[in-house]
Amino acid sequence: MKLWWVGIVISLVFSKWVNGFVEHSLNETELSFLEAYGESKVGANYLMVGLTLIPGAAAKRAVCLDGTLPGYHLHRGYGLGANSWLIQLEGGGWCNSIRNCVYRKTTRRGSSRFMEKNIAFTGILSNKAEENPGFSLKLNANLSKTILASTFFWFCVDPHLIIYGIADFFNWNRVKLRYCDGASFTGDGEDKARQLQFRGQRIWLSAMEDLKSKGMRYAKQGVQHNLPRFCTNHLDPTSCFFPQNLIANIQTPLFILNAAYDSWQIQSSLAPASADPAGFWHECRLNHAKCTPSQINFLQGFRNQMLNAVKRFSMSNKNGLFINSCFAHCQTERQDTWFADNSPVIGKKAIAIAVGDWYFDRTSVKAVDCPYPCDNSCHNLVFQRAN
Question: Name one GO biological process term (predicted).
């Protein structure tokens, strides 16, 4: 079995501006706006999937920050994908202070009361074969028999001509698990005085149990997540939450998709406003084109450290990589970055095709982009301050 973590935050079309950000108050909670922006721009032709609350969660105290029921969006698979499941864990950063967590209770990141009742399934969640990952025409006039497999669909034009294309995930059971616990589906505690419930671990277990009752127990493609002992035996549990301390020892085949200059990490980890009182990084954080040569050099160092961290991991034939030199933050859920005419590419290969090639063992995928600014296919995030 292969494991591929689907992080869910948004990469936007190059040259589009994200309005409404007050830069000085930017933190983990406000950064979830990246996802809201993407959802507000969906077109009428996209599949809209309703929110399902988990009815048995309350009895297990598996609740959001404000005590409301957690939920997910599920679109059923069919045909050859009927027993394959893709679980997408919604992102949105952590609330890292009591004030932050109390505020989050009034948003979709802390309460199902404020969650969208219907969301668009695009990118890796799309139900269209031509979008997930794409329809790649191939002609074979010599093929005398049709072969059905989970990686192909086909239709006949005449008895001697077969046209078929790659169709990897569109007919799987696809789930988006909503994120409302403030700590990435971990933790089990509460703050009674502020009426905060930190029940991420219970939410995770409750959601998995509910999905198993709906058929996931028969999944042919599935995984189980836990904190590995090979890490906790020599590091504290907090350190074992971070991938650089884990990936070298993970035995399950793993695919890493990440931007070399991750916008969320730049905003919240490398140069947060709290660590930059003089505002030296202000313009660079909003727009990479305004970074000074020294700042770009610093970001190149960040990229190099990440590549060094995955060097041992990438040597394994079972693992896959797609690290492009974009100022983005995950690129799976939006159709324009997952698979479209102008999607980001490395070596002419879009993200969706790279993931499918790796998962279905069509070819090895070790795609690492050249350093910024060589890649002109990126959909870079650019921010501007609210007026």
Answer: cell wall organization
